[in-house]
Each structure stands twice: as C-alpha cells, then as structure tokens.
UniProtKB/TrEMBL annotation:
Name this polypeptide is given: CAAX protease self-immunity
GO biological process: CAAX-box protein maturation; proteolysis
Lineage: Bacteria, Pseudomonadati, Bacteroidota, Flavobacteriia, Flavobacteriales
InterPro entries: Rce1/LyrA-like_dom
Molecular function as annotated in GO: endopeptidase activity
Chain ranges of the CAAX prenyl protease 2/Lysostaphin resistance protein A-like domain: 124-195
Record keywords: Hydrolase, Membrane, Protease, Transmembrane, Transmembrane helix
Residues passing through the membrane, by range: 40-58, 70-87, 93-110, 130-147, 153-174, 183-202
Amino acid sequence: MIGTYFLFFFLLGFLNTFLPSLDLEKYQQTELFNLMDESPLAFILMAVIIAPILEESMFRTLIKPSFTEIYIFICAVLAFIGLGFIPQEAHSLLKYGLVILSAIIIFLFLQSLTPSRFLRVFRIILYRNYRLIWLLTAALFGLVHIWNYVEGWQFDLILFLLIFPRIIAGYFFGKIKVENGNLIWPIAMHAMNNGIVVFFLLPKIL
C-alpha cells in the first residue's frame, strides 16, 4: 500500500510538472485542521481510533461477511446517519461517544435475534460477489472523503486526485479482509495508516 502511495505521488508530481495550472491547494481539509488546532487529543483519537473503527465497520463488513459483521454494518450505517442529527458545535468526543454507545446497544439487540431467511440469502449473495463488493466499497470509501474538503456534493479532477489515495487504501483494507477473514485486520491497518499521518503532524499538533 505504501509503495502504491509513493508511485501515485510520483506520478502526481510528474503530472503537475506538465500541468502547472493544476491547483492542488484549491481544497483544504479545513474542519479537520480546525479540530487539530482546537483539541489535539480529540483529533488523535478521531484519526487513530474512531475513524478506523467506524469507517471499516461501514466499508469492509460486507466483504465475505459473517452474520455478526452484517449486524456491525447496520449499526455503523445508523451511527453515521445519527451523526448528522447531532449539532456541529457539540464536543467531538461526546458526540462520537454517544453515537458509538447507541450503536453498541443496537448491535447487542440484533445479535440476540435469529438470522432471518432473507439475511441468509443476502449473505450468500455477498459471498458470491465479494470481488465486486471489495472494489465498489474501495471506490465509495474514497468518494465519501470528498466531504473532508467540501460541503455538499461536487466533483472535479482535483478532488479526484485528492481522494485517490483513499481509494488505494480502501483497496488494500479490503484485500487484508479477504485474505484474513476478520474485520480486526483492516481496522488495525487503517489505524496504522492514519497513525503514520498523525506522527508526521505531531510537530504541528504539539
């Protein structure tokens, strides 16, 4: 994955040489940088713990899933929707803590149920089409990161170049899930990926 990153940024620099008008500074992750300035601890927890758990629960659970992982996916989607109803000014740790606690309660309820026939068929379909799910979720994982840069929905070449490393990451997070069959591995890989970025940001954070 890291090797693919280096190749991508090498090609990006090559492209920028021939297209100097390509303004890669056009979009900034303003909200994340504001969080980093206002609450470094919240930023670190969000990047290294909360985001890997929540995002992998949404994007990697349906790749060759167990019933438990399907329940985790449902809870993660509900948690993501729930975040939209919490005021922006709410404290980040309180906001995510409340959402995660609610998701855990829903998960425990779903876990107590016997899987329905529909759920069994759905799981078989996901298993048979795991390669398509793997690639599709990698692309979606990249696309949702557009909201790190802009509000609402817009898309152009610069945004595509900014999110493409996330698509690369999504591919490899899916690969490690396929090869190991356990959600803990993409979560750990995602946390390591974000942790490396946080490590290089530490001088600015501190």
